[in-house]
UniProtKB/TrEMBL annotation, chain A:
Keywords: 2Fe-2S, Iron, Iron-sulfur, Metal-binding. This is 2Fe-2S iron-sulfur cluster binding domain-containing protein. One of its GO terms (cellular component) is cytosol. It comes from the Bacteria. The lineage of its organism: Bacteria, Pseudomonadati, Pseudomonadota, Alphaproteobacteria, Acetobacterales. InterPro entries: 2Fe-2S_ferredoxin-like_sf, 2Fe-2S_ferredoxin-type, Adrenodoxin-like, Beta-grasp_dom_sf. GO terms for molecular function: 2 iron, 2 sulfur cluster binding; electron transfer activity; metal ion binding.
Automatic annotation (TrEMBL), chain B:
Belongs to the cytochrome P450 family. The keyword Heme applies. Keywords: Heme, Iron, Metal-binding, Monooxygenase, Oxidoreductase. This is Cytochrome P450.
Length: 106, 417
């Protein structure tokens, strides 16, 4: 199974196997990775599943659509490599993906 | 008949013909008999058109969690724009509508929201935490012992108003003006209170604008600071607002942060009183405050609804909503939807996913202050547990006459001496 590495804001790493087709948000929430709240359950409607995508993966994870960009633009901790992890779907091409978590989700 | 206050709501709710059902009457929220009407709608007509409201005209009720989410995320079809009537079930007279970013659609909404968003940036929240804790301690330490007092007045209002004064960097000694303006903004004229006409409301608004214009003038020429007035005065998208737009955004920030948090503070005390088992769990494990706070906010649902206006035809739950129709998302009902939330009728302080509720809305308008509100409640409960082994609720709550603000005006309590 492909895997994702989540790096908490304090540096703690979590290597999680994630079935293709599931979102990167699910991988964190279902495996108890702290730092992803996902209040809306994956509807791209709360921006509390915010992550930073590490440089080498940016192109492969794609770009946010309009709704995601709007939601992200309200996150105080947003950066150019910010994504909402509920909008990134796991695939073989993303095996090894590394995402970092922001200081806080709101 | 569709009597606003039925003597027997439990049977009335289930027997009134659907085409005569109107869940919106403020009197039902005041006497807390609206619950079975929403249960009926969720079961029999989850997307329901009402034409019998004497106060609000025809409108759609969306009562299930999932359908509400569908409306929330589709701002292109479901507009918040004040030009169509804005965000509450009541259509205010056109010339009295206030422009404010909660009642705007993207892109203008996004630009203005971004100006104030930094108020809840992690660094600012951390700074506010210390201030809030000091104030909570002072308020709690000053409470009377061994006598009955109104929790709403002494704690809920006082604490939220102090918080607001901090966010605006508003003169502390004048802080009660903020709750007065907030109450005037949300008052329902039919309730027969101080605001019994739109003229009176406008007069109060003029006073509020004049006061804040002084603060604006003082800050626009000074260095930017992290308070809401300074942010608006310096923000790219807000520094050239008309006075009316400034007023609108002020009222938004005052009401947004005031009534809602106030009623969560009052509600929390009441729920723990009504659920002694949960109270015992909390006393045994104060760590549960973390998950109790969002549960309080779900259970209270301080804003019973938000309204949108359809700008295109849309099919929802098998019903055809037409362009121009008023659409009311009843958060208070979605938060009791058993298809989305397990045992929704119960107050349970250790739910697994306590933040899965509609009280803050979702989508581009999702509450700016949601984590700030949670932080206030969290600190309050930490300090209550530290001080008081018991706070007794000694009478029935009195509630607000409104189907928008779901609130409590009086909650008599006693702290044993
Ligand atoms: C428990 C407390 C609170 C509740 C239940 C609450 C609820 C809500 C709701 C339902 C919305 C509209 C969401 C939608 O239309 O989808 C909203 C928006 C908003 N709230 Fe809150 N709120 C609370 C506390 C606060 C606080 C403390 C502030 C202070 C900063 C605040 C400021 C705002 C603002 C500025 C908006 C407009 C956001 C936008 O349109 O983009 N709220 N709130
Ligand atoms: S989970 Fe809410 S936006 Fe991703």
């Amino acid at each position: 199974m492909p895997h994702v590495t989540y790096i908490e804001h304090n540096g703690t790493e979590h290597r999680i196997e994630l079935e293709e087709g599931l979102s990167v948000m699910r991988g964190a929430v279902d495996n108890g990775v702290p730092g992803i709240d996902a209040d809306c359950g994956g509807e791209c409607a709360c921006a509390t599943c915010h992550v930073y995508v590490e440089e080498p993966w940016l192109a492969k994870t794609g770009t946010p659509d309009e709704q995601e960009a709007s939601m992200l633009s309200f996150a105080a901790t947003a950066q150019p490599n910010s994504r909402l992890s509920c909008q990134i779907t796991m695939s073989a091409a993303l095996d090894g993906l590394v995402v970092r978590l922001p200081e806080a989700q709101h | 008949m569709n009597a606003p206050v039925s003597h027997n709501p439990d049977s009335d709710a289930w027997t009134t013909p659907l085409d005569q059902l109107d869940p919106s009457h403020p009197a039902r929220f005041q006497n807390h008999t609206m619950w079975p009407y929403f249960a009926r709608l969720r079961r029999d007509a989850p997307v329901h058109y009402s034409t019998t409201s004497p106060l609000f005209g025809p409108y759609w009720s969306v009562t299930r969690y999932k359908d509400i989410m569908t409306v929330e995320v589709n701002h292109k079809v479901f507009s918040s724009d004040s030009g169509y009537g804005g965000i509450t079930i009541r259509d205010r007279p056109k010339d009295l509508r206030l422009p404010m970013f909660i009642a705007m659609d993207p892109p203008r909404h996004d630009e203005q929201r971004k100006v104030v968003q930094p108020i809840v940036a992690p660094g600012n929240l951390a700074k506010l935490e210390g201030i809030i804790r000091a104030r909570v301690c002072r308020i709690l330490d000053g409470l009377p012992r061994g006598e009955t007092f109104n929790w709403v007045e002494h704690v809920s209002i006082e604490l939220t108003v102090q918080m607001l004064a901090t966010l605006f960097d508003f003169p502390f000694e004048d802080r009660r003006k903020l709750s007065f303006w907030s109450d005037c903004a949300t008052a329902v004229p039919e309730a027969g209170g101080f605001i019994d006409s739109e003229e009176k409301r406008e007069a109060v608004f003029a006073e509020c604008l004049a006061y804040f214009t002084n603060l604006w003038n003082e800050r626009v020429n000074a260095e930017p600071r992290p308070d809401l007035v300074s942010m608006l005065a310096h923000g790219e998208a807000t520094r050239n607002m008309t006075p009316r737009e400034f007023l609108g955004n002020l009222i938004l920030l005052i009401v947004g942060g005031n009534d809602t948090t106030r009623n969560s503070i009052s509600g929390g005390l009441l729920f723990l009183h009504q659920n002694p088992g949960e109270h015992a769990k909390l006393r045994a494990n104060p760590g549960l405050i973390e998950s109790m706070v969002p549960e309080i906010i779900r259970y209270q649902t301080p804003l019973a609804h938000m309204r949108r206006t359809a700008v295109a035809d849309f099919e929802l739950g098998g019903q055809r909503i037409r362009a121009g129709d008023k659409v009311v998302m009843w958060y208070i009902s979605g938060n009791r939807d058993e298809e989305a939330i397990e045992e929704p009728e119960r107050f349970i302080i250790d739910r697994k996913r306590p933040r899965q509720h509609l009280s803050f809305g979702f989508g581009v308008h999702r509450c700016v202050g949601n984590r700030l509100a949670e932080m206030q409640l969290k600190i309050l409960w930490e300090e209550i547990l530290r001080r008081f082994p018991a706070i007794e609720v000694v009478g029935e709550p009195k509630r607000v006459f409104s189907s928008f603000v779901h609130g409590i005006t009086e909650l008599p309590v006693r702290i044993p001496a």
